[in-house]
């Protein structure tokens, strides 16, 4: 700045030197945060990511835990679903997707194995019942006579 120029404020005292007025004005600018026009240059941009939808399959895992739980696959799937939900709450989308994928795979295997077990039990009951019916064991209260 030119120190010989006039003071910035028009009402400055005549006894004060021009350099004092300039320094005082610069100090006020630094304390108050600068003039109004420079505030646009000091803006802060915060990027907020939209919620990435990561299915955690927790309801499916709970259902498999209660009803289709061969080899505890439903329980393990439920544990991975809870881990996926925890990762999603923390903000770790990649970790949440990894745990959710594992939970989904375990849920599929739990449903498949559970259905196979149920179908196998139904077939076994039907076979044993028809065999017993053919031999005469069902409906009679006495032992068959050969």
UniProtKB/TrEMBL annotation:
GO BP terms in the entry: defense response to virus; host-mediated suppression of symbiont invasion; negative regulation of viral genome replication; response to interferon-alpha; response to interferon-beta; response to type II interferon; type I interferon-mediated signaling pathway
UniProt name for this protein: Interferon-induced transmembrane protein 3
Family recorded in the similarity comment: Belongs to the CD225/Dispanin family.
Pfam families assigned to the protein according to its UniProt record, in alphabetical order: CD225
Compartments it resides in: Membrane
Gene Ontology cellular component terms for the protein in this record: plasma membrane
Provenance organism: Myotis brandtii (Brandt's bat)
Residues annotated as signal peptide: none
Keywords of this entry: Membrane, Transmembrane, Transmembrane helix
